[in-house]
Amino acid sequence: MLTLNKTPGIPEVSSEVADDADPRPLAERIAQALDAMREGRPVVLLDDDDRENEADLILAAERLTQSNMAMMIRECSGIVCLCLTADKVRDLGLRPMVENNRSQYGTAFTVSIEAREGVSTGVSAADRITTIQAAIADGAGTDAVVSPGHVFPLVAVDGGVLQRRGHTEGSVELARMAGLSPAAVLCELMNPDGTMARRAEALVFAQTYQLPILTIADLVAWREIHG
Fold first, then answer.
1. What would the pLDDT profile of 23-52 be if each residue is shown by its tens digit?
2. Can you give the CATH number for the domain in which 71 is found?
3. What is the total count of domains within the chain?
4. Which residues have a Cβ under 8 Å from the Cβ of 195 and sit 6 or more positions away?
């Protein structure tokens, strides 16, 4: 029986366990993820195996805490992204990172941001939270943030996961479905050796930290049924 590489502090989990999908009904898994979003707990979100095949740690932007931000920086890539609607991005006056987006997946980065006030270098967990709070505040406009900075906004396409099966759209969908502001924070989950966490490692991580785990396919299926 194959055993996954052991992470310090994380118990070994056999591939026989890690390769099994969550057998619970979709409605139960969705409900658990939405509860986590409302309570400020992370959700692990996997995209399709034939797409990026990556797992992101997702949090509702308005429920973000310093401990969760620190977890993202520690366990993930450190590239903390703020997923926003196109309307919010326009309100903030953020332009695309590049004029001609040639990314394989059309990832819609804007220029990076920092809160105009209340931060030092912008790098710490507390500073990044301050930046995110400034950006998502009701009525926030072009004077709320400056560029460049240490938070990377992403623009979700209208129509959500039914139009683009990306983590950006899935994150905003989860926040909206939870009854929160349609803004979420994500960071790519990584293995200790610097490689990206795939499905098996993501399942181990979710089991270890008792986090809900969903796939983009789950959200697509839910949207197709419930709109």
1. 689 999 999 999 999 999 999 999 876 666
2. 3.90.870.10
3. 1
4. none
